[in-house]
Specification:
heterodimer; A: 348 residues; alpha/beta; Rossmann fold; 2 domains; 6-stranded mixed beta sheet; 5-stranded parallel beta sheet; 14 helices; 43% helix; B: 669 residues; mainly beta; 22-stranded antiparallel beta barrel; 7 helices
Chain lengths: 348, 669
Amino acid sequence: MIGDALNAVLLTGSKSQNGTWRAHAGGMVCALRRLIALAALAAAFVSWPAAAATEVLVVIAQNSPAHEEALAALRAGLTDISDNELNLRVMTAAEFSDSGPRATDQKLPGLVVTLGTDAAATVLRQKLPAPTYCTFLPQAAYAALANFSNERHAHRSALYLDQPLTRQMQLIRLALPTRTRVGVVLGPESRKSEHNLRHAAVSTGLVLRVEQITDEKQLVGALHRVMDGADVLLAVPDPLVFNRNTAQSVLLTTYRLGKPVVGYSRAYVTAGALLSVYSTPAQIGRQIGEELLAMRDRPGRPLPAPGYPRYFSVEINERVARSLGIEPDQVEDLTRRLAEKTTGTSHE
Amino acid sequence: MPESSTAAWEIHHAIRRHMSLARTIGLLLVAALTSMTWAAEPPLLSEQEFLAELPVVLTASRLAQPQSEAPAAVTVIDRQMIDASGARNLSEVLRLVPGFQVEFENGHRHVVGYHGLADEFSRRLQVLIDGRSVYLPSFGGVSWSDLPLALDDIDRIEVIRGPNAVTYGANSFLAIINITTRHSAADRGSFVRATAGSNDIRDGVLRVAGGDGDVSYRLTSGYQQDNGYGQSNDSRRITFMNGRMDARPGERDDIEFQFGYNEGPRGRGEAGDLVNFPHDQEITSRFQQIRWRHRLVSGDEVAVQFYYNHHESDEQILTLPIPQLGGFQIPVNYDVRSERYDAEVQHTVGLAESLRLVWGAGARLDLVEWPGFLGSAEPLDNHYYRLFANLEWRATQRLVLNAGAMAENSEMTGSDLSPRLAVNYQFMPGHTLRAGVSSATRQPVLIEEKGNARFCLNAACTLFDQSFYSSGNLVPERILASELGYLGRLASTLTLDLRLFRDYVTRLITAYDGFYDDSLPDNEAFDFRNRDKAMITGSELQLHWQPEWNSRVILGYANVRIESNDLDAAYSKSTPRNSVSLLGLHELGDGLLASAAFYYQDEMRFVGEHPIGALRRLDLRLAQRFRLSDVQGEAAIVLQNVLGEQVSYNKEDSIADRIGFLTVNFRFR
């Protein structure tokens, strides 16, 4: 928890991980971030109604295998709780739009848990006065949703799907100790995280090289330029830069330059990235279940602060590693050491 | 006063009114723009970005062999090493490779030797720039000063120590130097370098690069001049230009086009020599190259390449008056022009998860016009064809087998086959043993097969002297190389590459004085015959240590011994017994970089040349990076041959030159 809360604070940009205030303040942006940070901290103290047989409404974006997997892990974590204490109801985002609870309803669920970006968007649009826990969505999506609904809505929090930047940087440090220059190509979406990327790189002892693009056509050139001064490419999610169509350009260009890619999903490793750190749907589901249990046991039952996944997996493409002449440690070893480095997290 | 004050007040008000109006309009505009931006806001990042499957891009057939699985020993010289070495000429960088010697005949003629056997033309090394062979079909070997290439254009150099005909084609005999230039998309904006130093060194490079999306280009032009070595007439004034364009017409295709041009006078001759008196030769060298790579849906890849090389040296002189001939001046024609057309297609196929085949075919036409030395006013040509295949089998996770062969057919020498077999076994993670046997040929060049150099007293060619007269019927030289290698990661910061080798070279083509009948004035001329054999044995070591991100140490060592049935120990002494190279570099912080390169080699003698004594060489470099707003730059001071022991092998009394120069570059985005 402490780790998550710290990460949340770190991400919102007011305090660095080792607790020292940063001298640099980015004016308005920074002030805004502080506000968000305050909102996030406030959200951590919102209470969950203490009535018995609380109804928890789980809204999933769609009935995909990944969502089912997360849901199954969530349920598995709640087997010890009796039905008259917690009543779990599941519906899809589409069902929620048609027949879900409305802000004007007399009786509202004690807690709404959303799985996926669409589910979060659908639920938050209804502005229910019920506490809402948005999970299984990218941090950027949650931040955007939080910005869209302007009013100060403290009854909500999030469990992101993506990994904290420091965890990704630590992975590079551990797996590729001699590759200290990290290149990133940022698009219109991921540009917002440049400041946090720089900060995470510095705190991990890495050097960050950045190229920005505004059009997919600029990608190959940007990759060549950024990798000219970098030893490894860190893929930062952005629909313009990293998608199904650009995967080929990204992976082939960097490979020909003899430089590895660190991805953010298992699919990236299968496609040809050297390694990825990511959380499986089951790992997210497990954490949601644990958070629900913790809320039950906490006096006042506050929502946890927005945070990153506690559980994660590391995947290595052995063939690509071999071909690039890189010999990273065994996955298990790497994952364990990474978990030790980023406290408050676990890889089980 | 009050009037004017009121007027001023009104003006002030008017301005205020206008300003507030402007502000309102501005705010409205901002609001409008903001709402437009909101409307154009991209869809929210979905969890699908993290969950969606992706096509496999790096399929088994696309993955290159890592060093630990390659069937040969490889030395990589990267950009940082090139800079740190303090080299001003491409050839100088090769000193960093274990077993290599880089010597000077003079300021513009460099000889790069590996495992001996070389004379002033080192004919047994293959040199490729982006897959284009720059081996000269006239003299054989490479004319390093004539390559239209700036050191700044190079991305990396890979040197394969040992023969590798299967992958690199004909004449990949003792070693292969594989130079890769920077992709044109790696640079944007312009780059300028200016260099000045002792020996009248004045160099300049200007590069512009641009393009966006699917097409990018780079254009480099440069000038290089110096006064060569010591007091010799060996200055050079080189003007060059090269261009590269990379295009991606589709997701599956890459097209690369390159051209280059190099020209200028090179000083030749010695004071006091009546025939070879001080004069200039005019060099023109140019090329065009196109490469197309196509990725098939299956993940396999097809590559097609075509290039044209042209090299010309204009040097027609009239000797000084020769007293023995009553002051007669003999016309000498050293003009030589060589051309090479080369086409190649290569197909990489993933036959199974653990089995990969690379196969292809090539055709080549060499044309050499060299009236003074080939005895023909018409160009002589040679057609050459090759077929190659390599099968890579990953028998287990730890055991990789490479088996391949190249079949070649030359109009001049007929057909030959060069097979290869190598096994790599990873006995522990990070530790690999390699055993390999491979064979390769060296095709004779035209001067060896058809040399006929005569100096005439008149148009009807009354012979004054015949210096070359080839008896012909040469067959290719053959090497049978066997090696044992070890490649290990001793620590995360330390890698070691060890190699024991045994190269058996037969049918060595040797030039020696042949005796002829009375039709020749002095009854003798140089002839080329497949006469000699050489057994080259020894060991090589390469150590790469990177204790910190900002420090690197690279050590190379070679011990080479040649046994031969040669005359006058010509081949036996053509390599130093021991040689060492040591490069250290360190970033001191704040953009300050220091590096030093030290080399040592035992005495040696290129075939038919003056001996070179044991020598040490030290090169030092100190560089400061800087940034002036948007402009990045670097200023460096380089001191070469600090110990003053490296001399030209051309003369017995060569004087060592210590060289110092200052070089500054700027990068504009």
